Amino acid sequence: MKRKTKRLLARLLALVMVLSLCEITLGQSKPVKAAVGLQNPTTNENGVTTWDCIYFGNYYQSNSSTKEPIKWRVLSVNGNDAFLLADQNLDAKPYNEEDTDVTWATCTLRTWLNDTFLNTAFTSAEQVAIKNTTVVNDDNPYYDTEGGENTTDKVYLLSIAEASNTAYGFNGEFNTSSNTREAKNTAYAKECGAWETYEGNGCWWLRSPGDNSRSASDVYSGGYGDDTGGTVDIDGGAVRPALHLNLSSSTLWSYAGKVTSEGGGGSSQETPKPAATEPPVVSDRDE
After folding, report:
1. Beta strands in 154-265 (DSSP E)
2. What is the DSSP string of 213-224?
3. Measured distance CA(5)–CA(118) in Å, rounded
């Protein structure tokens, strides 16, 4: 009887050891979020920029019925703060619904981004992780058109200065074509009326004013910075959001590989997309 008991105990001990080894091996195979060190953009001697990317939030992209993870380019990272720009144009909206004198502070696109888009694309927890950013609205540097009051936004658009900032990976000359500024439209953005070339690159709004108070600057499909801009109520302009994310909320985002400016609109070396989720549409924004 004692021999049988000893044999049974020995077998149980061996089984426990095997299971422990399996658990250790499986644990080592899991990706560790903390091991992913996001980097600032780099530009090589040939002018090709490489951006790190992350997935954060979900929005309609392939169609108008299913949300998919949004891919963002990391324009800069400083500690737990990441300045992000959507990898693709996500929607199409006029800068302002009416043809009238307007600034970023008063335009309908700003309202849409910080209400409808914010609540559609991000859960309550994700909204908390998006920082409130003091957005500086400089005058148009070429025509001195007034930029209006500074704003505090969760989601916003780039300015002329930001879209030509080499630290963010862009060509430093705004009034020139550059694939560092090219962006492809999603199928959903195209469905919503976004203009595009045969390559699928779109024309996306900036928040800076154009050559007068009824126009807003933009980036043409070839990555050309348009300082004169388009009439604020014109259809076809694509929306390419930007935001600041608190990276310490590490369960809310995941690494998405790298993209480069080579090939127009960004060529991709990415990790598989995480499973899409459906954020609830909430009535009140988290501050």
Report:
1. 155-156, 204-209, 215-219, 225-231, 238-239, 242-246, 253-260
2. TTEEEEE-TTS-
3. 64
Distance (Å, whole) CA 157 – CA 142: 19
Kindly state the tokens that stand for 257. Answer: 């590989």
Pairwise CA distance, residues 41 & 254, whole Å: 18
Task: Determine whether 234 is exposed, middle or buried from the number of CB atoms within 10 Å of its CB (0-12, 13-18, 19+).
Answer: middle
Cβ neighbours around 194 below 10 Å, total: 25
- Average pLDDT (62-86) is 98
Mean pLDDT of the chain: 86
C-alpha distances out from residue 6 to 3, 9, 16, Å: 5, 5, 15
77-124 pLDDT tens trace: 999 999 999 999 999 999 999 999 999 999 999 999 999 999 999 999
Rounded CA-CA distance 87/84 in Å is 9
